[in-house]
Write a structure and sequence with these properties.
Elements: E1 5-7, E2 10-14, H1 20-34, H2 40-57, E3 59-65, E4 68-76, E5 79-85, H3 94-105, E6 109-114, H4 118-127, E7 130-136, E8 143-149
Antiparallel strand pairs: 1-2, 2-3, 3-4, 4-5, 6-8, 7-8
Length: 163
């Protein structure tokens, strides 16, 4: 079911291919701040993976203000693979609105977040996610936290997209 939320020039809607450039820009700008400890080579590889692989298999929604994509959230099943908000729009409730939208269709959500991503960790803590596990990310060697939200934990699902 597609639910569109519109508030004075703002809406949450399904991702379309025409959003790719703006979505990748939001992801990159937010990643440079939240993931400053990662290399430019990692960002380039991720950009390619997002465009060529993950968006094709994820259920992705975008937050649009006056026709411009300023945030997005990608789901595969119950896995939150990505939630990013343009740095110029952070702190305005956009991330929460995207997560609320995902939560409305899923009784359980899970994700990985880099341990060093203090911005993401604060957001997920405030939203109510709980620590399930700690491990190292294979691609970066960085510590990651496995978080979940909701009481009934389903069987193991696909790997996380982007942290």
């Amino acid at each position: 079911m597609v639910v569109r939320v519109r508030i004075v020039g703002e809406m949450i809607r399904p991702y379309t291919e025409k959003d790719l450039s703006e979505l990748l820009d939001v992801w990159y700008r937010a990643s440079l701040i939240a993931h400053s400890y990662l290399s430019e080579e990692f960002f380039e590889a991720e950009r390619h993976q997002i465009a060529e692989h993950w968006l094709a298999i994820a259920e992705t929604i975008v937050y649009e203000i006056d026709g411009r994509v300023v945030g997005f959230l990608a789901l595969i099943g119950t896995e939150v693979g990505a939630v990013f908000v343009d740095p110029d729009y952070q702190g305005r409730g956009i991330g929460r609105a995207l997560m609320d939208h995902a939560r409305a269709s899923r009784p359980f959500l899970e994700l990985n977040v880099f341990g060093a991503n203090t911005i993401g960790r604060r957001f997920y803590d405030a939203y109510g996610f709980e620590l399930v596990d700690r491990h190292l990310n294979e691609a970066t060697g960085q510590p990651e936290l496995r978080l979940s939200l909701g009481r009934d934990r389903p069987p193991e699902g696909p790997p996380a997209l982007h942290r």
